[in-house]
Amino acid sequence: MSLHNSLKEKIISKEKAKTISDDLRIKEKKIVFTNGCFDILHPGHVDYLSQARDLGDFLILGLNTDASVRKLSKGDNRPVNNEQARAQVLAGLSAVDAIVLFDEETPYELIKFLQPDVLVKGDDYTIEKIAGHDVVIARGGKVITIPFLKGFSTTSLIEKIRKA
Fold this sequence. Notes:
Number of strands: 5
Low-confidence stretches: none
Strand content: 15-25%
Mean pLDDT: 90
Radius of gyration: 15 Å
Number of helices: 8
């Protein structure tokens, strides 16, 4: 069984994301960037990504690779879903226009490369702690935090499953 073409087209290289971003920017479209592990997708993720997408015209999601997730000390046996599975599920969301995987602990280099107009993270971060905030602000962009939907987290979901 092969992945549907419409999903494959959303999982792209950073170079392709840069080309698309540059083309859209010429048309005065706003590029939004966010990132994360998105290990077990839940309503909090969907709400967050929908809000992020509403802040511009094109949402690029920087997805931590499996190696990157392990660097973040998310816990034993994380990620639960491998990077390809996580990318495929996220590609099915209408809020997400493109997915670029990155190996580093933070997406700083990817943000520097893509130069988004809007950088978004959850409100568990302060603006100063968001990787790439300096890059986006320096080019006149915005850095925005979005509140999480209460009651949903991957960690609590894993705990619930373990207790079942």
